[in-house]
Amino acid sequence: MMFDVRHRTHYRYSVPVVQSQHLVHMTPRDSERQSTLHHSLMVEPAPAMRYDGLDAFDNVVAILDIEVAHKEFMLLARSTVETHPVISTDFAATTPWDRLDAALAPGAAGFDLDVIQYRCATRLTAPTLAVADYARVSFPPGRPVLEGAMDLTQRIYTEFTFDPTATDVSTPVARVLNERRGVCQDFAHLTLASLRALRIPARYISGYILTRPPPGHPRLQGADASHAWISVWCPEAGWQDFDPTNGLLVGDEHITIAYGRDYNDVSPISGVLLGGGAHTVAVAVDIESLDGRTPPP
Amino acid sequence: MTYSSPSLVESEHQLLGSYRADAASGYDELLDDDGTIRPSWRGLLSSLVGLSPAELAIRTARLDRRVRETGIAYDIFADPNASSQRWQLDLLPIVISSPEWDWLATSLVQRARLFDRLLADLYGEQSTMRRGLVPPELVFSDGSFLRPCQGILPRAGPLRFYAADLARGADGQWRVIDSHTETLAGVGFALANRVVHTHVAGDLFKRCNAVRIASYFQDLQLGLAAHTGRDNARIALLTPGPHHQDYFSHAYLARYMGFLLVEGADLRTKGNRVYLKTLEGLKEIDLVVRCCDSGLIDPLELDPAGFDGPPGLLRVCRGSPRLVVNAAGSAIVQNRGLGPYLAELSRALLGEELLLPDAPRWWLGDPLARQHVLQNLDSFVIRKAQEGTGRPGQAALGYDPHAASRGERERLLREIEINGATLAAEEKIGFSVAPAFDLKGLIPRPFAMRLFVSRTSDGYAAMPGGLAMTVDPERAVALSAPDGHTRDVWVLSQAEQRPHVSLWRPKLESARVERSQRVLQSRVADDLFWLGRYCERSDWTMRVMRSALRRLEEDSGPSNGLDAAQKCLEMLLRDREQAATFQRSTATATANIEHLCRQLISGSASPRALAKTFAGLYRVAHLARDRLSLEAWHTLSRFNPGDTWVKSLPMAVPGTLQDLLEDGLASIAAFNGLMHENMTRNYGWSFLDMGRRLERAYNLSEAVLMLFVPPTDPEQESSSLMLLLELADSFITYRSRYRLDPLLPLVLDLLLLDESNPRALACQLAAISHHLESLPDSRQGVSMSEDRRLILSLQTTTRLADIEAIAEEPQRSSLESLLVQQLTVLPELSNAISRHYFNLTDEAPHRLHLRGEPLP
Lengths: 297, 856
What we know:
- Chain A is α+β, with helices and mostly antiparallel strands.
- Chain A has seven helices and 14 strands.
- In chain A, strands 1, 2, 3, 4, 5, 13 and 14 form a seven-stranded antiparallel sheet that branches. A five-stranded antiparallel sheet of chain A has the order 11-10-9-8-12.
């Protein structure tokens, strides 16, 4: 499918910001699942310095340094992306999760630093004993890795409640597990912590998801959203994406922006300000299908 | 070795008797297997034998006093007299023979070269991981492997600082028990120890022909200057601040090397440069010597909660990779799990056999190692593979499965299974013993030592000295010495020593005649301003208490001013903001004054309680310490909240309390005198003095308002006048001028309007105005700055005041409005000065986050 994405972020500050620096991950990267046909990032006020490049995970990153005093900051990212249908994989035929060590050992065909790095826990995905116990339910000995991953994805979807008030960006996964509430980042981090407790390579994906209006309602402007999900590696199929927030396998209505080990590697925008006082932010994402197909109601 | 006199043999016996009796297991540094003194220690021992026990005791006491005076400590705010955490330096050093040192130095330099190569590879090509020389999961599981530094570190130039903790096993072999590549690892402690120790044992040092360390620091300094590629490079040592346990080390080193001591908030990035915020605006920094964790130096790209460095520092480093040393991300190679892989790495990267291996340890991410460790769990200590900056003596003790309950063991096994990649298992190799000094004689004490290596213009060099610490061999496998018992390390030389060249005395060719002020950080100006305020506040509060207590002793009678004294005490106890009236109790004046004094000492209700004022005074004095002379610093040391003087105040009976207050006032007077005589009249002085004068102007105005508005009966007024003259230290001036009993108009003229009286309000205002005129004004050409406008308005009112008319008004409303104006505007002035000079903005940088929250 072909999509046009408009992602608008607008900050307003109560007192002028003297200097602001931002790290932006808003350019969809190319992958087997998608190609980015067009992209632009507009920034206001204009930065004194702008660095565009690739980060350590080959995501497109922009670093902005704004030196003029300002009370508003606006970013508009526009992208045209084509997503490709996902090739179906026979989950039951994938390598058992407890045999991945051999597949990833030095000398083996799967020995690849780019895969191995995602077996390792980070601060935001550090497994506790409780997380490991939770994970083991989906991964009895000998279970094919993607079968287990699908099971884990669906368990998190059914057992957890979506609740934006329950957590913030620094809530540890242990608490998410305990309280069974959170948002997409939390569910992605919990899934990653679970998989990494078993040393299964898994990465964090930041992107967009096309949302569907309730039956009989028109699509609302700006109602789409940035989203987060995860991807699991197996020797047979490479990386396969799962969406624990929605309990499903990722298809062609997910648009990938960037991937990394956790949220901190790829957050769409983060910034450090001098001054500014209190702030408000408005975010609007609009995804428009270009090939005439509208999502089924 | 032969002794000429029997008394020397006897004193050798006395010195070593208990040492020999206390048979120790493990390697003995002093005695060989036959009980003979090893050759390297003979020189020192024979010198010691020549000293009488009394002399040794005196030297030990002097050493202790010097340590206290220099302020060597982990936690500079802790009670210097408390036994825990107290830094101790033994009279006896660890002695290392010349051949042994040569081997150690070569081995450590080899390790520095190895880590340099390994770092460049891990942040560059990563061939060591691809070739299986380093397990990738060891690296990727270590939070100190900073992905944003990829591509920066290999361009940053060589690793500049390396330190190793060493222990000697029972087999007599040295082994590395920890490596430090993140920061300078507390080299300032070693330097301070040496300086202090030389004061007391310099003669012994000379007689042993031990090697000096000054040239090491000179080479280090030249190496850093060359690294920047600039003449007169502006070098900043970046510290996390006074609450970090290594702060003493940072401050001492910065002062010795002539670096600017800066904190993250002092710096700012702009474009491709990093700048220091100073009173005169932004000044470019050429080199940052990093003394904080890499992960905390840039909240934009690294840990979002880390503000030890300026936001955007990594972005700047991408353009100027040599800006920060050690380069950000350097901690990864100090990971303990690397130990088993170093020998192979040395062959692969250097083509050399590793000379000095790590103590036996296992990385628990490796399945085979894990299996081995789990089978022999009791013989290991489990520790974190990565432990950050490595404060000397503060290494975590680790987890000893041997002592664990069954449940704990169970948990540990699961922890290893899940998080093995971040853990290491270590064998207890034991420690060698060396003599420590005790009044009974020498006693054997197990120790480990930290040695330091740095990059010079000419390759790596090891510092011929180090920091040794006593450890508990039962518990420690690393440099864990929480009791803070330290030793100097002496390296003996066979060559003649060059004359002493200290960095304190720069060579003339490298110095320039400079009369302009050194760069003054905005933050330091702030600290000095508050130092002035706290000093004056302490002085005033103690004066009021002293006057009140004096009046208790005098014959009681309505005229002796008890009532006035009580009013002044109450005024100090009141919150400035809330002018609530004080509930006066019906008890006797005596009991009341005692009660008020007690509240003013430690009461939590008043913001001006002495406990708070002294704590503030000591804190800012510490922050501004590198601007104070040693003597000036000493005069303030009694105000440390942990000091016995401070602690004895709340318990003292009125008579004793008066004596204690006299001591306190004498210290403040001494401090003021020293500053007045010794401090260069630069911007720093201006802020210190403005702080003092602002506080004085406020206190005086407040006291006059409290005592004379509204008017009281003549008798009471006359005792109030006496009290006021006493508080303002102007009694003699008044008497010599008027030879009359105090009269209101005359006293008010002397204390409010007379610019020639250094205690008068007008004089304080004139001085503040003068200082403000001399400071750089960043807003040139624009309208008058807020601070200057405020001081002008205050001065105008006092200059226009007609004191005789004011004093005669029945309700004194003009006097009241004059004083109320002072009391309103002075705090505004203080705020205006803060806004103008201390911060470029009102706030510290803070971070913004956004997270996607799609509808389900």
